Amino acid sequence: xxxxxxxxxxxxxxxxxxxxxxxxxxxxxxxxxxxxxxxxxxxxxxxxxxxxxxxxxxxxxxxxxxxxxxxxxxxxxxxxxxxxxxxxxxxxxxxxxxxxxxxxxxxxxxxxxxxxxxxxxxxxxxxxxxxxxxxxxxxxxxxxxxxxxxxxxxxxxx
Length: 158
Known about the structure:
Layout: H1 7-34, H2 42-45, H3 66-79, H4 81-100, H5 103-114, E1 120-126, E2 141-147, E3 150-157
Antiparallel strand pairs: 1-2, 2-3
Helix pairs in contact: 1-3, 3-4, 4-5
């Protein structure tokens, strides 16, 4: 049994690696210094499958297999860890919108998100202190989904 990559996967890896080297790597130091993510890269990453790669094609994704997705994430992480984190959070949000969003939310957020047209954040705040107050006692984690300046939802986990 051969556990190596297929010729198509090797070609994808090389194409993505070349893009990262030529287009992303030169911007990493300045972006980190300015503490600002290079949002304009998102539409450029879309053709590779970074935006919604695991979503089915009928939902606007690429219907990728996990092995292909792993190649994309590996190359993004080698080039710029912040990019990999952003791609993971974008795709978590895309999966949530696809699976649980209303048709209106999918139209308003999912399509522009997959086109790289929306800034997004998934903020996770971990609480080890259960003193109460505004945060319910026993809460260990709060996640907030934000697109642009609009809070989509807040979830507390115990």
